[in-house]
Amino acid sequence: MRIRATVAALTGTLALSALVVPAAQADDGPNTRQLSASVAKVANGAAAGDTKITKVTVNGGKDVVIGTSAKKKFTVAITATDPEGIAGASGFMWHGPSRQTADGAFAPDDFDSKCKVVNDTTSTCTLAFTVDPKADIYTNDVAGSGWKVYAVATGGSGSTTIDGAKSDARVQRAARLTTNASPEPIKKGKTLTVTGALTRANWETSKYAGYTKQSVKLQYKKKGAASYTTLKTITSDTKGNLKTTVKASADGYYRYVFAGTSTTPAVTSTSDFVDVN
Question: Whole-model pTM?
Fold first, then answer.
């Protein structure tokens, strides 16, 4: 209920906020009276005129990766067109099967976007977002795809709204991966044990927890070589731990590599150098 109330409040904020052209641009764009009338139509649930939103881009098209404590900054860009030019645009992000049943929402730092004129009819307006995982995310269920954008754009001939523009970026739980090879040093031909752990952010506890039953590659690079080769693929256990053995052949570097999933980004551990006698 808390998220739904938040989304409803954000929707109301956009519907009632006038997107007014700065005074310095007043002579080149729609006047304040036109904009006020357009916003009033949005508030009444109507889209008017020839204003069109042509593109919505989240974080430049890259996934938004969020940990357990650090605030995450990213942008949402709304491109719109109108025969009489674009005065402004705004919006917010939401997650769920519908806006009315949303289980997650992100509000911009400021509903007034910064617009860049593309040409006489088109502008791209950018909103800055800062997400605090401890205050803005309440469930791990919002990880992955399913995020949408409620976008509003105002032009000289009216306003338009997109309720549920599909996001081109996923919101993911940050991941960590470690590698430790032992014993060190080791004699050639002896068995080397390589351990590690794959963990990811748990937004419900604000801690990192094991990512279980995931395929992870063990890679090796001989000292002086230019690239790594994959030795084997293993699966993380019920606590996210990794453990396997290999025969030591020459001085070199070992590391684990996780390819990622829809809810969790790819991650590569720091390599561990092994001296082979």
Answer: 0.86
